[in-house]
């Protein structure tokens, strides 16, 4: 009988990643609108300016870890990886929200803005919406083909670049797991990771293009999954150690506060995942975060439009330099985002997840 496979603690990490992206975007929005922002605080500049990107990297490492582990589990149980079923599971989980946001960004928002003056106070987003270059055919096609990481940012859909990166990662990864034996698989993972890294370090042809597909971050998650799948009995005793867990959190804090290489952060994220899924006396388990993690895909995808809407509403009640404006801006954005994400999960995502698990899940 097919069943869902679940790691305790990963939803909490998803929630932290999603909230990090929202916090970054809220401060970035205020900064771009020339309002009070933490971007203007010198000692927080690196932390704030990279927080959203680092939240996305956490998502990437989580995705690489979980997808690889599930593929290895499937291969162990079935002696094969059913590529078609894998892609159908991804389609039913990822595509519905992606294309809902596509319609919001390319149809609903331009129509809304053209029919009302409600958003006229939002200068930065309005300048993007009035930029015809962002709505030309080639941009629309890039978004439609899940290549939004190569397209100009479009209000309401620019965050989808990371979803496109994940879909591009999935074009490669399941085939590696399917075709390589256990011993050769780790070498394939490492070779891919080192190859991408070397390509970037050496600035070889199309280097700038490759930077838009940070597959090496997801590959790190895959390597950690491989190690945990095949060597859990050896590793578990180390990841139960609370002192090592505290050291990992300390190094992560330094990596977030100072401009350290993204590979360092990705490795720290990979270690954090293993610490979190291991049962211990001190952990990051939390019911509220776990619930937010369940709807984190919606939180990540819906929040830019909710932010745009919330700022326009806040402007109707308070001056932009008023502290009450920022409080209302934050409060409305978070409330609207969580509400729409919950409704989306309950009425759309949850039903599709149940369908794809019933029809295309192969784990026993």
Please state the average pLDDT score: 90
Separation, N- and C-terminal Cα atoms: 6 Å
According to DSSP, the number of beta strands is 0
Strand content: under 5%
Helix percent reads over 70%
Structural class per helix/strand content?
mainly alpha
Low-confidence stretches: none
The biggest beta sheet reads: none
Tally of separate helices: 14
What is the string of helix and strand elements?
HHHHHHHHHHHHHH
What is the count of distinct domains? Answer: 1
Radius of gyration: 21 Å
> Which word captures the global form?
globular
Overall description:
The structure is a single chain. By secondary structure, the chain is mostly helical. The protein has one domain (10-360). The chain has helices spanning 10-32, 45-78, 83-115, 123-129, 137-144, 161-179, 182-201, 207-210, 215-239, 242-257, 262-277, 287-294, 296-317, 323-360. The mean pLDDT is 90.
């Amino acid at each position: 009988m097919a069943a869902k496979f679940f790691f305790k603690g990963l939803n909490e990490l998803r929630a932290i990643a999603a909230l990090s992206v929202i916090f970054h975007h809220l401060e970035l929005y205020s900064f771009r609108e020339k309002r009070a922002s933490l971007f203007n605080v010198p000692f927080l500049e690196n932390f704030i300016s990279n927080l959203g990107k680092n939240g996305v990297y956490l998502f990437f490492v989580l995705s690489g870890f979980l997808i690889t582990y599930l593929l290895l589990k499937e291969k162990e149980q079935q002696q094969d990886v059913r590529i078609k079923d894998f892609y159908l599971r991804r389609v039913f989980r990822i595509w519905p929200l992606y294309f809902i946001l596509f319609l919001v960004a390319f149809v609903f928002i331009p129509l809304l803005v053209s029919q009302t003056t409600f958003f006229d106070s939002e200068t930065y987003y309005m300048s993007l919406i009035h930029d015809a270059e962002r709505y030309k055919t080639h941009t629309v096609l890039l978004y439609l083909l899940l290549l939004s990481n190569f397209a100009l940012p479009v209000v309401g859909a620019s965050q989808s670049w990371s979803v496109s990166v994940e879909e591009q990662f999935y074009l490669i990864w399941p085939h590696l797991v399917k075709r390589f034996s256990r011993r050769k698989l780790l070498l394939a993972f490492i070779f891919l990771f080192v190859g991408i890294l070397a390509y970037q370090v050496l600035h070889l042809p199309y280097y700038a293009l490759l930077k838009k597909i940070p597959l090496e971050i997801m590959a790190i998650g895959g390597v950690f999954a491989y190690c945990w799948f095949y060597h859990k009995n050896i590793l578990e005793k180390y990841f139960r150690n609370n002192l090592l867990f505290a050291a990992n959190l300390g190094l992560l804090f330094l990596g977030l506060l100072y401009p350290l290489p993204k590979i360092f952060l990705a490795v720290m994220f990979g270690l954090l995942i293993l610490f979190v899924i291991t049962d211990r006396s001190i952990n990051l388990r939390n019911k509220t975060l776990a619930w937010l993690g369940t709807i984190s895909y919606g939180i990540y995808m819906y929040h830019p439009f909710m932010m745009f809407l919330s700022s326009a509403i806040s402007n109707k009640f308070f001056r932009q330099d008023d502290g009450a404006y920022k409080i209302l801006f934050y409060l409305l954005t978070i409330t609207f985002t969580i509400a729409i994400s919950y409704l989306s999960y309950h009425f759309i995502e949850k039903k599709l997840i149940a369908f794809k698990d019933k029809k295309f899940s192969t784990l026993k």
